């Protein structure tokens, strides 16, 4: 028997529906259930062939558990080693190398000194920074947001330099991005599962949260194909099994705005019934594929092209 586990927190609609859908398929030798952890011993395998991770970004104990599980042969969705290393600024940097349009973006040191550091810890950092050069490059209005994390936490829309200086002072020890605002005609949020299944969803981030998947636009067949190709390219290089990519269309050009969402929203109350049904069905199909192909005690993780090409000293593109 090969078990598929889902590791989650207070989220309920997706985990429950996912488990029910896997089990309803009646695949011989495959069963799904919530992950149960009674103890974690170094180097010992779990009972799961596949684990879908929905919570370890908030629980370091779970992240350690998943790394040990992966080391012992569990296919963890998403790869916990890569997810631990990844963040939004790197993703933007990578996009510039693989031909994906992204907003102009710079990274900023934290406003306050990190714990256990002093001014001497930053002797390599010019002070003050070349603020005029940064502002001229990015332009205003602009967005400032954490270089890692999600959930629209600590995100600011800034109109000018004075507003930036005021708001940056509120960010404490967070390392922030300053990013060009893309004035878009259309916006899409795109699920990508297994590096091959894509769902393009019209999305209106300016609406109240519960209405963001209610939009009065849809892509042409040509634009749909172009966006699918971008979504697949991004996830091919990052190596995520379960991710969302947000694309903003300006003058018809899809700009990747946010594509580091490896525990993406899949709640029925926000994504809506049709999108929910798709993500449950597709996640179940992919998890079963991963369980059936799992080889005990081997590396069953997905590794992106960036890591694979770097390790073999190949050029990125």
From the 3D coordinates, which CATH architecture of one domain would you assign? 3-Layer(aba) Sandwich
**What's the overall geometry?**
globular
Main β-sheet, in a few words? Answer: 4 strands, parallel
User: Strand pairing plus helix content: what structural class?
Assistant: alpha/beta
H/E topology pattern: EHEEHEHHEHEEHEEEHEEHHH
Helix fraction?
25-40%
N- to C-terminal distance = 41 Å
List the total number of helices. 10
DSSP strand content: 15-25%
Calculate Rg over CA atoms.
Answer: 21 Å
Mean pLDDT: 95
Care to describe what's here?
It is a single chain. The protein is built from ten helices and twelve strands. With 317 residues, it is of the alpha/beta class. A four-stranded parallel sheet has the order 2-1-3-4, sandwiched between helices. It has a four-stranded antiparallel sheet with strand order 5-8-6-7, sandwiched between helices. A four-stranded antiparallel sheet has the order 10-9-11-12. A hairpin with a 3-residue loop joins β9 and β10. It is globular, with a radius of gyration of 21 Å. The two termini are 41 Å apart. The mean pLDDT is 95.
Spell out the blueprint of helices and strands.
Blueprint: E1 2-7, H1 13-24, E2 30-34, E3 48-53, H2 60-71, E4 75-77, H3 80-85, H4 88-97, E5 105-108, H5 131-138, E6 142-146, E7 156-158, H6 161-168, E8 176-180, E9 186-193, E10 197-202, H7 221-238, E11 242-250, E12 253-258, H8 268-271, H9 273-293, H10 305-311
Parallel strand pairs: 1-2, 1-3, 3-4
Antiparallel strand pairs: 5-8, 6-7, 6-8, 9-10, 9-11, 11-12
Helix pairs in contact: 1-9
